[in-house]
Structure formats: structure tokens, C-alpha cells
Amino acid sequence: MRGPQAVPVSVEKVSANYAPYYDEYPSVVKALQEVELRPQVSGYITGIYFKEGDKVTKGQKLYSIDRQQTEAGYKQALAILSVQEANLVKAKQDAERYRELDKVDAIAKQQVDYAEANYKTALKQVEASKAMVQSAQTNLRYSTIVAPFDGTIGISSVRLGASVSPGQTLLNTISSDDPMGADITVDQQEIFRFYQLLEKGDDSDSSFLLTFGEQKYTHSGKMSFIDRAVDPLTGSIKIRIEFPNPDHVLRAGMSGSLRVLSNTDNKSITIPYKSITEQLGEFFVYVAEADKVTQRQVKLGKQVGANIIIKSGLKEGETIAVEGVQNLREGSLISISTPLASNKKEEIISYSNSEKNDCRCFYKETGNRYCYLRLICFGRVDSDEHIADLTISRHYSSYSSHYRKLYRS
């Protein structure tokens, strides 16, 4: 009687490699400075001195409000001050005169006391009138609204002739635009990791990248700050990443994804994702031992292109089944098939591309004219390609200048 038939599989030794990747977080672009412009005096808008959406500079005149009432209030305050100063002169003269008469006992003591009190009252009235003049002068100045800092002004909420009320009517919003911030919310368990990135403070790396759908923002960012406290309701904390914005592409309120580089310093166990099998929400691989396989549960990490990081369950040097796993069971007999290019060598070349991202190029010789190539840039694995004469295909056109040095030995 014939025994169970061996299942043909291809195998691969488990190895630890550098497998950097990006974690992605929803982010919202924020202006580092933003203020709503509201009037401090009532009246009618008499002038608008900017073009909506323009860049404005600190102190630039933006709006003017009808000055008739504020100018009248200012002139009235000046007139009241003049009256009080005249009263002060009179009160001072009376007090000095009564003091001289009191020395020769030629006036009642009570009248001297009244004169002294009137003089002190006149002094305070002058001070009050000066404060009123200052207040009226401030209101007059508030009739002209200027930019509080350099930035971009938005669409005006009012037009010429509109009536505005102090502290209530929104005129416009102005915000700074270079640099810009991107706010993300992370779990409190990640605070230590982000604190290390904050302490690192390297402006030249690509630890933080901003993407909007398929479009990638060209400048990398740096950590600005971690919020002061964790939200007790959600167990999360806000973090701000600062991005240069010299071309003013970023706008406040944009929603995107912030990519944070991870796993750059340590080697990780990585295996082909196709070697994983799933059963009831748990993940397994088949470990080859002689001519049999043993099913072993593993804990998965981040998927990096065609590979996946294994957090636990495998050790470096073990052999796993990669092809044909769908036909395997616990204890299945196996026959190991010979890879097509087993007699060819495999090389790994590391270098940097034009965007300062560390890249690794994996390739095998498969014949006289063809190469089997895989490109990894910070964990991004592009599809495998067969490339004639090592000429980069259209898919890799942006990297071609970096791969010309790859040649068949």
C-alpha cells in the first residue's frame, strides 16, 4: 500500500533584514498663526485695501470704518480735558491764596479745608480726562484695521457700506503660510516613540512625509511639539509636525496622511506574505523539518510590499514553505522543488536615490539578457519586473539613472 504522497513546495530560509516602513496617520494641515479680524468699534465699512487671497505684511492697512463718531468722541474728550485743566488752575490758585490767609488767621479754617479738597478733586478730574482722551484716541485708531503679522488673507466677510459691531462681526481671517503644521492624533502608548523623534530633531531626514491621496508633498517635516496632556476620554494625544511651505502649496484645513518612518535601526524577521495561511483569524506558517512540515502560529507585524514582518513565532535560520502552502496540513510530507535560478547568485546593493531615501535593490540573474529585480525604498516594494538588458522599464523610469551601475557578472 502506497503512503501519503509528498506535496511539492518551495522553501526559504528565514532571515533578519532591515525592513523600514511608514506608519500612516490621518492629519490636518494647520497654520502656525491664525487670527480672526473683528472690529473694536461700530460703524460702516468705508474702505477695503487688499485683494482677497493676497499675501499681506505686518501693519498693512486692510479695512477702514467710518471715523465720524470716533473723531467726534476724540475731540469731545480733548475739550473736556481742557475744561478740567482750567478748573485745576483755578483750584490750585484758590488753595494757595487760602493758605496765605490762614497763616495770619484771616480766614476760617473750614474754607481752607474746602479749597484743599477742591484742588485734589481737580487733579483727579484732569487724570480722568486724560484717560478719556487716551480711550477716544484708541477707538479712533481702531477705525483702521491692519494686519497683525505677515501671512495670507482670506475672502472678506463684509463689503463696502456694511454695518459692523464691536467684537461681533467677522471681517476676515489671516494666517501665516510658511512654515505650516500637520496635526495628528496618536495613542498614548506611542508617546515615548514620538518623544525620541522629537529629541532627535534631524531636519535633513525623511522621517515625516505628507501625502494627499496619490500625491506626495515634496518637503519632509520635523516634529514641532507634543501636546501637554493625554485626552482622558480617548487615551490619545495630539502631535504637530512642521513642514516648510516655500511654494505656498499647503493650505490650512487640508486633510491628508502623515507618514512616519519606523523600524529603521533594527533588523526584523521578514518572510514572503504568500507563505502565510489564515485560520479563524489566526495566522500560521509551515516550518520545514527534514521531509515534513509543522504548522506554527505567528504574530504578524507591518506588511512591507510583498513581505511581512513577523513579530513572534519564527527564528532566524529556520526554513519555511513559501510555494504550495495551500496544499499543506500539519505533518504533511514535502518534496522541495528546485528554484529556477538556484544556481545564480543574488546580490543586495544599497544606495540613496535623488530624494535622499535609502534604497535596496534585489536582483538575480535569470539568463543571458534578463534580470529579476525588486526595489525597496523605506519599505516600499514595487512589483517584480523582468527587465531586458538591465534597461529600466517605464515603471522605473524615475530611478533609471541610479540603476545603470547594475550589470551582469
Quote the beta fraction: 35-45%
Shape: elongated
Radius of gyration: 39 Å
Q: What would you say the CATH architecture of the largest domain is?
A: Beta Barrel
Strand and helix layout:
Layout: E1 7-13, E2 15-18, E3 21-31, E4 34-37, E5 43-48, E6 55-56, E7 61-65, H1 68-103, H2 109-142, E8 144-146, E9 151-153, E10 163-164, E11 172-175, E12 180-187, H3 191-200, E13 208-212, E14 215-216, E15 222-226, E16 236-243, E17 255-262, E18 267-272, E19 277-279, E20 282-289, E21 292-304, E22 307-312, E23 319-323, E24 334-336, E25 346-352, E26 358-365, E27 370-377, E28 380-381, E29 385-388, H4 400-403
Parallel strand pairs: 1-24
Antiparallel strand pairs: 1-23, 2-18, 3-12, 3-17, 4-11, 5-7, 5-10, 6-9, 7-8, 9-11, 12-16, 13-14, 13-17, 15-16, 18-22, 19-20, 20-21, 21-22, 25-26, 26-27, 27-28, 27-29
Helix pairs in contact: 1-2
Task: Write a structural description.
- The protein is of the alpha+beta class.
- It is built from four helices and 29 strands.
- It has helices at residues 68-103, 109-142, 191-200, 400-403, and strands at residues 7-13, 15-18, 21-31, 34-37, 43-48, 55-56, 61-65, 144-146, 151-153, 163-164, 172-175, 180-187, 208-212, 215-216, 222-226, 236-243, 255-262, 267-272, 277-279, 282-289, 292-304, 307-312, 319-323, 334-336, 346-352, 358-365, 370-377, 380-381, 385-388.
- The strands form six sheets. The chain has a seven-stranded antiparallel sheet, with helices on one face. Strands 2-18-22-21-20-19 form a six-stranded antiparallel sheet, with no helix packed on it. Strands 25, 26, 27, 28 and 29 form a five-stranded antiparallel sheet that branches.
- Strand 20 and strand 21 (292-304) form a beta hairpin.
- Helix 1 packs antiparallel against helix 2.
- 22% of the residues are buried.
